[in-house]
Amino acid sequence: MRYLPKSPADRAAMLKAIGIHSVDDLFSPIPAEYRLTRDLDIPRQMAESEIVDWFKQRAKENGEGYTSFLGAGAYSHYRPVVIDALVQRGEFLTSYTPYQAEFAQGTLQAIFEFQTMISELTGMDLANASMYDGSTGAAEAVMMAVRITGRHSAAIARNLHPEYREVLNTYATHQAIPLKTVSFTDSGQIDLKELEKAVGDDTACVLIQSPNFFGTIEDVEAIAGIAHKRGALLVVSIAEAVSLGIVEPPRTADIVAMEAQSFGVPLGFGGPYCGVLATKEKFVRQMPGRLAGQTVDKNGKRGFVLTLATREQHIRREKATSNICTNQALVALMVNIFMTVYGKIGLRELAKQNLAKAAYAADQFSKHAEVLFAGAPRFNEFVVETSEDPYAINSRLLGHKIVGGFPLKKFYPELGHAALWCCTELTTRSMIDTAVGLVAESERSVRSMKDAEPEEVAR
Amino acid sequence: MKHMTRKATRHISQNEGLIFEKSSPGKAAWKLPPLDVPEVDTAKLLGKQERKDLGDMPEVSEIEIIRHFTRLSTWNYAIDLGMYPLGSCTMKYNPRVNEFVARVEGLANGHPYQAEKISQGALRIMKTLSDCLLEITGMDAITLQPAAGAHGELTGMLMVRAYHQSKGNARKKILIPDSAHGTNPATAATVGYAVENLKSNDCGMVDVAALAAQMNEDVAALMVTNPNTLGVFEQEIHKIAELMHAKGGLLYMDGANMNALVAKARPGDFGADVMHLNLHKTFSTPHGGGGPGSGPVAVKKILAPFLPTPVVVTKADGTLGFEYNRPQSVGRVRAFYGNFGMFIRALAYIFANGPDGLRQTTEDAVLNANYIRKGLEGVYDLPYSTPSMHEVVFSDKLQSKKGVKTMDLAKRLIDYGFHPYTTAFPLIVAGALMIEPTESEPKEELDLFIEAMKSIAEEVEEDPQFVLDAPHNTRISRLDETAAARKPVLRWKPEP
């Protein structure tokens, strides 16, 4: 076995040193009836070349070479090659959580820089070293708000990512946190009047997403006003991190729960991604997750350590702020390098390109189909309603090697023929024109069919 | 220097400031292609929502970024540099082919919402990994969705709760041995259960008589790590399972130490009802400075209806798909399907090993731990003489007579070119030194480690203060953690 660094002679020498004859003696604590005496029924040992071939075959079955207009919480942005060049350095890739600070300053300083940039971008005072992803981060933020306020319910925007809502439901059920769902208006934004009614004296927080699941940007200040008036906190979830380059961050929020996948993390069929929590300084001791802090060594030299560990499970056990232990460190490093590459000016220019592409695409689509929620500003996603079921359209687009927008019916039955389309800096004008052309064609054919059957229309 | 071994030597290490200290206006590491659609008026599109300024974000060039992160990386210790004997963390070799296949186009770029028709490759990977893990654990059904071990625990305990609820009573508490990882009690609390501590016996194992006395119909489950955190196999595990089952309780096995059992014994055979695996421990996916992990949860048939949605199923036409309609499911624990990139790596590892390789791996891991135990017995106090599996726990009892504690010994070990072992855990051993070499260490590295530990023990006798002041050879000396926690500085700010 090529990963095992011992010769038979080494093993024999070690057994002799221990004073036993066979390695089986070391397994004698396992009762004999539970010892496995056969080979596991799994594929045989493979050569590296066979492994590579197997996975390349799987990649071929996995939609290689398609043009995609999918976003909906997972975004396709260009990943500068320096990211993988650096995160594959063994000193980052194969090191552990930096508990032994003297021997892990590289990871610790990188986390400190990550925390700084996330704070800066989100408009918060501080950020943690990462959470699993945007969905669990949002759920942890709600539980954090419950701890801070001592209140027990939460108001959740219906235009928050539906899978984030599902995860929150799972977490909240056993924490006895009732969730009130607040609907959206014709602009796609949260219904402020309904929100006003939903927030009461036992509301720990309002949880919204901006840009929301439909791609429209929420009036965070107005929502914060409603929440704060009743003593509730505002938690803002951000699924498309690139928006922060051009969209004002939610400075009036109390907690920002972000999915940073857009910052240099591969789509990877849904993970690993990089959740982050950012918050106000006064709430830091209720925040879950690891934190790197600056300090000095015995000689007064600057260094970094994991700090405020008394919040965490390995110290506090059942009284910890969360059970989280392993986080997404290496993915956070990808995010970190991405933020460093684009920086102060590049992130804004990148976001501007996303804005321009989506604006162009929405404009083109609107000539042939209905673009919903046009009354509010949006970033790089928009909702297109067609005459035909978007699943049917998408299935035709697949034939042209195009993956169409995300059909919303599954989560929003009332938006039966609507789909969520996304454009990023990687979406070219010709891709947009081709997709719009195909959708226009299908719209025309549905319309002409309808014209031919006037009774259908009348019904 | 005092005693030193052949492992480490002094070496130039570059100084490097924070990236923000290198920033100056006009430098850039990015270049966008020309915009092929009309420019937009951002003020018109966004109004008051337009962001004008990104504050203190850095402006640096590409070479500075490469040097910055490369220099930082050289301040880290890593498995690639040498033995990383962190007990319970299982710092084994992370094969490079895993990284390679995870980056194959088509897998790395797959969107989680692309149609199942063009996701068959990803689904096949999930199905194949699931099948392998079920065979390895001896369980019946599995979810790959949890993002890490603790997240797997949460998922498992949610299923325990849902199971009891389906019987009409969710029950009130979870029994947890005093040797358990901190995540266990934290998880039980998150799911709304009270935690009841279970004392270990003189051998460091679950006290079966105490368990019999504590077990009743209020107890939903026992969470047990096997081998436990002392590296000891719970020899009466089948009795423990019987005791739990007799009163309608479930046995949760924390699979953090599954690397001691793979291909040698299967939890499903000895009575576990639900367990999580840590793909970043047992199945070689990298720790990456703290994550990402992946924590699949495997269960017996009785718990299968409660698995999170969706689950991967084979459809009538032979293709694979996701099944969402599972009325008894605990729901979702994460968006999308889990840390898919880790599934690829873990499966590549299983392929590289095969049944024979996995068995040899487990045997070598246990052999290495016992070789260290033999080498250091008598030099360090061994609080439990019960046989060790994949890790061995010593204590600082002998050295603390000179005022030197486990953390001090650990810091001195850094000077010898080794990462410290796990300190002060498990809690049932005062001043614990928890050592797990894994199968990845050659005999020479183990000999150097034993030599280093012996040398440190001698230093404690001759000059304890020298050990207390360690590390001596690192870029920075011991850091003031108290100051860091008292007045937290958690981000950089420009000089006023």
Summarize the structure in words:
The complex is a heterodimer of chains A (459) and B (496). Chain A has 459 residues and is an alpha/beta fold. Chain A has two domains: 67-76 and 344-452, Aspartate Aminotransferase, domain 1; 82-339, Type I PLP-dependent aspartate aminotransferase-like (Major domain) (Aspartate Aminotransferase, domain 2), CATH 3.40.640. In chain A, 39% of the residues lie in helices and 14% in strands. Chain A has 14 helices and 15 strands. Chain A has helices at 8-18, 48-60, 81-87, 90-93, 105-122, 134-149, 162-173, 192-198, 220-229, 313-316, 329-366, 390-399, 429-452, 454-458, and strands at residues 67-68, 126-127, 153-157, 179-182, 203-209, 233-238, 255-259, 275-279, 292-296, 302-306, 370-372, 381-385, 402-403, 406-407, 418-422. In chain A, the strands form four sheets. In chain A, strands 2-8-7-6-5-3-4 form a seven-stranded mixed sheet, with helices on both faces. A four-stranded antiparallel sheet of chain A has the order 11-12-15-14, with helices on one face. Chain A has a two-stranded parallel ribbon with strand order 1-13. Chain A is globular, with a radius of gyration of 26 Å. The mean pLDDT of chain A is 95. In chain B, helix 9 packs across helix 12. Chain B has helices spanning 42-46, 62-73, 96-102, 120-137, 149-166, 183-190, 208-214, 237-246, 340-376, 397-400, 406-415, 443-462, 464-468, 481-486; strands spanning 141-143, 173-177, 194-198, 219-225, 250-255, 274-277, 297-299, 311-314, 320-323, 392-395, 422-423, 432-435. Chain B is an alpha/beta fold and 496 residues long. In chain B, a hairpin with a 5-residue loop joins strand 8 (311-314) and strand 9 (320-323). Helices cover 34% and strands 10% of the residues of chain B. The model of chain B has no long low-confidence stretch (mean pLDDT 96). The chains are: A alpha/beta (459), B alpha/beta (496). Chains A and B meet through helix 1, helix 2, helix 3, helix 4 and helix 5 of A and helix 1, helix 2, helix 3, helix 4 and helix 5 of B.
